[in-house]
UniProtKB/TrEMBL annotation:
The gene is tmk. It catalyses: dTMP + ATP = dTDP + ADP. The keyword Kinase applies. The keyword Kinase applies. Keywords: ATP-binding, Kinase, Nucleotide biosynthesis, Nucleotide-binding, Transferase. Belongs to the thymidylate kinase family. This is Thymidylate kinase. Residues 10-187 form the Thymidylate kinase-like domain. It is an enzyme of class 2 (transferase). HAMAP family: Thymidylate_kinase. It comes from Leuconostoc aquikimchii. One of its GO terms (molecular function) is dTMP kinase activity. Its EC number is 2.7.4.9.
Length: 200
């Protein structure tokens, strides 16, 4: 049986992290080895240039930020994802499709994003939790108590959602994020069971 690479994608507040954890618990309870991880890493998230944009909207060169994200992804794939797949299933919170969606909304050409992200393995399953931007911002505000720079502009999140739906792989599992947590979990489990039974 092939170990699975499963990516969870969606707007902030869509519940992707919760669903990743629920699936990881289910796999572990069924004697499956599983690694959970996320993109980008804390190295990227804590970079001064990245933080200055995310928190304050200040950036001198957005392509440079995209390059930082791409370098972080390459390290993540070769240091975490591929070694993880040698041992078991890998579940990642966000993946390449987030870079497509967010950097396009930030004005970076999507072909440039593709060109700086070579050799990124396609997941065996991409789960996209679809949520209206308005609901996303309400959830984030309630969760965090405040909004980051991009979270103050619902138009950005509208563009991000539209790009996600354009760039996701054909085999993606696109789910209504306003379904109950348990209903979403059941749908994901059924799909993963199907993949495991088919030997993928």
């Amino acid at each position: 049986m092939k170990n699975l690479l499963i990516a969870f994608c969606g707007l902030d507040g869509s519940g992707k992290t919760t669903q990743l954890r629920l699936l990881a618990h289910w796999l572990s309870s069924n004697q499956q080895v599983v690694l959970t991880t996320r993109q980008p890493s804390d190295d990227y998230r804590n970079n001064d240039r990245v933080r200055n944009y995310l928190d304050n909207g200040i950036v001198s060169n957005m392509k440079a930020i995209a390059l930082l994200a791409a370098a972080d992804r390459q390290n993540h794939i070769f240091e975490v994802v591929l070694p993880g797949l040698e041992k078991g299933h890998v579940l990642t919170d966000r993946y390449l499709y987030s870079s497509f969606a967010f950097f396009k909304a930030r004005g970076v050409d999507i072909d440039f994003i593709r060109s700086i992200n070579p050799d990124v393995p396609e997941p065996d399953l991409t789960v996209f939790l679809d949520l209206a931007p308005r609901v996303t911002l309400e959830r984030v505000a309630n969760r965090d108590g405040s909004l980051k720079f991009e979270e103050r502009n619902s138009k950005i999140f509208k563009n991000v959602r539209e790009t996600f739906l354009e760039v996701l792989p054909e085999n993606s599992l696109i789910l209504d994020a306003q379904l109950s947590e348990n209903d979403i979990h059941k749908i994901i489990i059924n799909k993963v069971k199907e993949l495991l039974n088919n030997g993928l």
